[in-house]
Amino acid sequence: MKNALNYVVSIFVIVIVLLLLIPLPAWLLDMMFILNISLSLIILLISMQIKESLEFSIFPSLLLITTLFRIGLNISSTRLILTKAGAAGEVIKAFGTFVLQGNIVVGVIIFLIIVLVQFLVITKGAERVAEVAARFTLDAMPGKQMAIDADLSSGLITEEESRVRRYKIQKEADFYGSMDGATKIVKGDAIMSIIITATNFIAGTIIGMVQSTMTFNEVLSVYSIATIGDGLVSQIPALLISTATGMIVTRAVSDGSLNNDVATQFLAQPQALMMGGGIMTVVSVVPGMPHVPLLVVGVILLAIGWRASSRMKALIAADDALTAPGGAIGTPPEEEMPEPMSENDFYKDINNVYSLLNVEPIEMEIGYSLIPLVDESSGGKLIERIVIFRRQYAQDMGFVIPSIRLRDSSNLNTNQYVINIKGEEVAKGEILIDYYLALEPPNPAGEIDGIETIEPSYGIPSKWITPENKEMAEIYGYTVIDPLSVMLTHLSETVKKHAYELLTRNEVMQLIENTKKVSPDLIEETFPNVLTYGAFQKILSNLLKEGVPIKDMETILETIVDSSATTRDLDTITENIRIALKRTITRKFCEGGQMKVITLDAEVEKAIIAGLTKGEQGIYISMSPELMQKLIGQISEQMKKFSELSLTPIILTSNVVRAYFYRLIEQFFPNIYVLSFNEIANNVQIQAIGNIVIS
């Protein structure tokens, strides 16, 4: 059925092209005109029912087909009008007769008004909106990609959901780009309609006067009816398609169709309806005004507004009843609580003093104003989203993040929060709970008022904006994030950065016990004969520090056993594990089968190898300050390319120098990833966007 439909569409397009060449009989032309009007009406109704533009993504192609169809019909009807003395079918005759009503001047004026309305109002407006929408959509793509990465990193969405959202962003850009060009087709169609109509009337009048025996009045009557009728049967579908074009390109984000949105949003403002009805009622008693129509409209508006107001009051009353004490979701009456113990009395017990010595793995202190984001009884969602993040991170990395302690602190400003790892502050931020954070795009389409700041997770220049400016900021290309997402993203990125510090010996034992359930022989072979638990902890920490998942525990242990036959060096074993996990590493850093990287020149690698020195703590690089400065400077310049492309910065090296080069630059570029050629799967296309050389 689907293949047959594809052939039908292809045949229909070929038939449209043939209409430009092959004469049609009048009866078949009538059927084509009726089909054209019906198809245009269906397209308009679909555009009113969809929730977002991508639900009708074939519209640009459909617009081209219907426009070509109308032009083909116009040419066919022109051929009949000029060769058959205006006899171009019953549809054209009916439209022309109905509009003219015996008066040629009135008919021509009405036709011109319809054409000009379509050309100057609807088509021109839709063209401008499509142009702006395409530009803003393309400008907003990097910010939207960053928002998806932030949601993915914070655990709000899965990798599959992120791929779907990225695909949708790409489809939106393609769609609005196509619509920008498609609106030019509508504009050209309106101009061509005026030209064809003028040609029909002028050429028809000349032919009628020269080649027939009709009088001038008869010629004028026949060809005016045919011309106006032909113009109308093409302009009415064109007007419907132009209206559909305007509706699609002006379609904002919504939860329902246009019909639902109009009804919902109008009825949500009953006071405006009643005020409008009251004004119409007052105006109806003014002398000289049409009293009855104004009074009828005023009464109807008052009735609708009163009805909507009563309905809203009933909903509010029902909501209050549910949330009141003793209601369906209310809290029970407070019971008499015992008087709390003072702090001094509590610490008189020496056992309670020992509780002060405990160090929380992860702790988040928040200011007073941020408590509603945490308090679940007040609708706070932070705890819920932390749970989602922990689950997502465990699925991606194979490591369960320990519990995060949340507490308020009087030592902080009301809008501040602090993230502590093992009792020490590692990150700090400040958010405005009643504002939105707008991430500034590279080339914003306009300026938005707000409080300038820096996004805490990625250091992007941003502004805190009021909710009223949110929609305008999105139009200008800003990526707008709510305060809770800002704080959670900062927390998740900080936890990821320090995950290797959170991998305790107890957690390692838990991972081993979990693997023992499926591979007991492998665990018995590895521990303690091949490797100690402490050495295993160090290997896993090294992997987590560089963002390598440790989920495939069997592959990791098997590689350790195989490598131990030739070496006991933990760094060498770690590099072998990375090679064994090449598919995992490739999946993490590869997008669409491609990986954009910066490479090291062969001379740079030779200088690194020459600078390797063995000390008490192992092998390290000894490099001159001048060479080190050049190296860091070049890396800084190359990093700008990744920022412009919104990609993860990756430096590709040989397997020999990878680990040492990473240790050399990690203190300067903590967010950079260093991979070796051996860690990338063979089916990946590597694209070098820069090269680091020693000049």
What are the defining features of this structure?
695 residues; alpha/beta; 14 strands
Written description of the protein model:
The protein is α/β, with parallel strands linked by helices. The protein is 61% helix and 10% strand. It has 26 helices and 14 strands. The protein has helices spanning 2-19, 26-49, 59-83, 90-100, 104-153, 159-211, 216-249, 258-267, 270-284, 291-323, 343-346, 350-353, 371-374, 382-397, 470-475, 483-497, 499-502, 505-516, 520-526, 533-545, 553-563, 570-580, 582-589, 602-610, 625-645, 658-665; strands at 362-366, 404-408, 416-421, 424-430, 436-439, 451-454, 461-465, 479-481, 594-600, 612-615, 618-621, 650-653, 673-676, 685-692. The strands form 4 sheets. The chain has a 4-stranded mixed sheet, with helices on one face. The protein has a 4-stranded antiparallel sheet with strand order 6-7-5-8. A hairpin with a 2-residue loop joins strand 3 and strand 4. Helix 5 (104-153) packs antiparallel against helix 6 (159-211). The longest helix has 53 residues, at 159-211.
Short description:
With 695 residues, this protein is of the alpha/beta class.
Low-confidence stretches: 322-335
Bulk shape: elongated
Helix content: 55-70%
Strand order of the largest sheet: 2-1-3-4
The fraction of residues assigned to DSSP E strands is 5-15%
Largest sheet: 4 strands, mixed
**Could you report the average pLDDT, rounded to the nearest whole number?**
79
Broad structural category: alpha/beta
Distance between the termini: 65 Å
Radius of gyration: 36 Å
Number of helices: 26
Let me know the number of strands.
14
